[in-house]
Design a protein that fits this description.
single chain; mainly alpha; Serine Threonine Protein Phosphatase 5, Tetratricopeptide repeat; about 80% helix; about 0% strand
Length: about 280
Amino acid sequence: MSGADISSRSGISAHEYGAAWAAATAALEAGDLAAARTLATSIADRSHAPGLERRYGRAKHLLARIARAAGDPAAAEEALRAALRAFTFLEDASGAADVLTDLAEVRLAAGQFGDASDLSRQAVKRAPGNVRALTVLGYAQWLSGSPADGESTFEQALHIRRDAVAALCGRGQVRADLGDHRDALTDLDRALRLGVPAAEEADVRSARALALAGLGNLPDADAEITRAVELDPNRARTRLRRARIRSLAGRLEEAFGDLQEVLSFGAAPVETATARRALARLRTL
């Protein structure tokens, strides 16, 4: 079905809606973002009428997914705000919570951790058992400089769903950073067994390397941090953890180099501040 097939504003039947929705989601999954956008826009346009608010909200939510896949956070946020208005009008707490969580993820990806925390808190307030909202809140708390709060929030998510991979990854990383190495390894190894998304593997591997180093297993730690760097060579978090591992191994000059590289990356403020503090400590040794 082409976008032109459903482009009028005369309304959309249930059959047309189902067919167009299936075509739009299939195009998104196939990576044909232009076709997905055309179809989803047509659904939204023809659903922007009294009595069709749910369809309109879902179409705008789909447009946000398409915009995020295309690397356009501004368009994603605009679509998510429209979806949020629709679900709020419908008093659909679950739908609003899902949209707020997506908004929080957009802000999290932009390094706006305070905004991400506020948005995910709103999501949790509307849907207290929403594991994804709790997980995003945990990441926002941790990355904004409150790792203990983040760990507690990850605990809540895992109490609801013990095999929530994203929450396991988050709690494992926090535990590694805080020095709880044995429990960190338990979380991270479990997450890897369950299947970690490719985009998260470098962080999981670098945290696992830090935990291994903290337990005195420097050869395995070195192998694991090398793998993490190969997965994402310019990731600031990986370099920060490699600096800690190298410091533990007495390789202070190499650790110093890692920290200097973090400062050159234009990293998030919390990572830049961490690198500066670590450099100041190294200079006293």
